[in-house]
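Table S5 (text form). Sequence records supplied for joint modeling of the two-component complex.
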Amino acid sequence: MRASRAAEQTLRSATLSPPQQYVCRACRAQAARQFHTSIRGQAGLPFFQRLQQQLFGSKESEQAEKSRGAKKLQQVEDLKQRGSSNQLEVKVAKNGQQYEVAAVVVPNETTDYVQALHGKQLERIGSEAWVKARADQGEQYAGFVPKYRWEFSNKQWQMLLHHVIVEILTLQKAGRVPGDVCMGRRPFANSWQKTRKAQLKANTTGTGVAVSYPFPAVEERVLTAIDSSSPAESTLLQQSLTAKAESAVFVAGISSEGPAPAWMNVSIKDPSVKMALVKRILQITGMRVPDYAISSSTIADLYNRLRRLERPKKIAETEQLQRLKINAPNVNVFPARRSSIDKEKDIGRWKVIEEELVRRNLPVTGRRWGGVKATSL
Amino acid sequence: MATKRLKTSATLLCDVFHRPAPRHSAPMATVAPSTTLAQSQAYLDAHLISTPTARPTSARSIPTSTLFQAQANPFIQTATVTTNAFPSFEPRGFATYPSTHLLLPLRKDILHRAVIYEGDMTRQGTASTKYRSEVHGSNRKIRPQKGTGKARLGNKKSPMLRGGGVAFGPHPRDFSTGLQRKVYDLAWRTALSYRYRQGELILIEGEVELEGVHENSAERYLKDLLKYNRMGHEHGRTLFVTRNIREGLYTALEGEHMGKQARAKDCADVDVKDLLELGRVVMERSALEYILGKHEEDLAPGEKLNAWSAVAKRAAYEERTRAGHNGDALPMAA
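The corresponding structure-token record, covering 711 residues in total, follows.
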């Protein structure tokens, strides 16, 4: 390096115009001495010997390669003795900074090591995203709302509301808190099928609605299925839960589509019941019950706010136009634009016109084209 | 800059105006409730239902007589809002507010006025040009009045000439306009009512803060949170409104491209336009009550939030003592 630096300096001083015109003999002699064009180590060798060494190698180069290979093998042996491949050797540089020595991988011995075919397969390090990913501490978000969201039809909403309110009433009857409905379920409990058999009736005192099962054992099973000791259902169980919901809901429903049936006249003024209902619906469907729907006083009101109104297929069937028939009986609404042909048809003259046009070999409908004698209607 | 601001205001207002009405709209505030119910339809369980906490009255407020008790307004209904936990968004309880605050009918004209007023108020107004008197140059007449065959000209600072002044160009000025305080307050509550009706107002009990999350993972954690709850860019973005500055949340939202996911504002910084702009508003309960309490100038003293909450609590107590609490069966609807 020192020789190259000196050579560079010499060349620079030789090529560039010197700051002063006069260069002394001693400086000129020094410049000439320091100027070399060949490698110092090989300078003394003749040309052919130098060429031979470059092509076939020399003893020194062979020895240097051997020592490097031995060093590598030694490193591999050290790694094997250390045991874990994740532990890298830590060295301290001259400036005191610690660094990890990269692992040495021998492809012949390491079976799980696959050499990359090109650079695209390799990990790119040093980018801002890579730095952020390394700095990330790895905290995972766990939310209450399920990841998916089910879209239910009106029939399915009825079934769902029936199932949830039956469970809540069953819990209340047993003296438990309605909020327990959001808790976990024992595996293979099949409470969806069991709640379908329950009926909601006005109780004997006439002040409220009570749930009744065909058999007491069914009610017991519904209660035992709600496991109060286990925590609220985790996300791992959500998939199985909603699969059950889907399967139970897709089975034949308990009532036909349309306005709310009579059993839905269950008051949900009690905030604990309302909260349990809202939370359970959110847990199952992933749908957040809108706040204006929560102010409903009965399940029928809630259902009417949540269900999808069947949109009329034709504009003529919409409520606005149905009202128009009553409010303005002199107004007619037609599904398509009225043409002169429609007007003639109303009068009853179109048959005659059509016959005459056909007789005269004229176009009955469509635009006029050149070469045809057109008669205006 | 000014034109851009107006354009975005216009597109925002178009979005509000031409948005299809919800299939089921909340009942109008002017419908009188059933006489069998208490005026606020207050509920029985105090731990789930809560009314706004009364703010301490200021020294400048009108002192009320100790014998005076605010009478219930029979036309005020109750808006029930679910309160959730953060960051899980698990429903925790209900909060009730009067219909004068969260069930107002949609008044597009008032919202328009408020948005334009805010836009005008926040204009920088720093565009500046030079009049011919301000342009640097001499006042020498550059050519004779007559005889040149060309138009007559005075000095070279004329607006007709290149390098001259601008005739009626912009100058730094204040663009702010006035809006009646009561109208502006009504606009605030109308915007919140609109969001409530659309189901886009989510209330958080407690603080909206990323607790237990390292600052290096806050951005990724918040992105996951928004994606999981369907509140991110694909679902129209979210505005977080907090009572005070939340360091963790605000720092997480300063990251690159996080503005496309969500925004966070202090309740002192938020505007009517901000409430209407993004897909939904996630608001701390304390922030909502602060905003509602600050923007009720157009209401009578008996209709303000403090007075209503006191009356509602009294009515709830009366309802509880009169009806009793039957845990055996749910009451049948009348």
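Note: Chain B touches chain A through 48 residues (CB under 8 Å).
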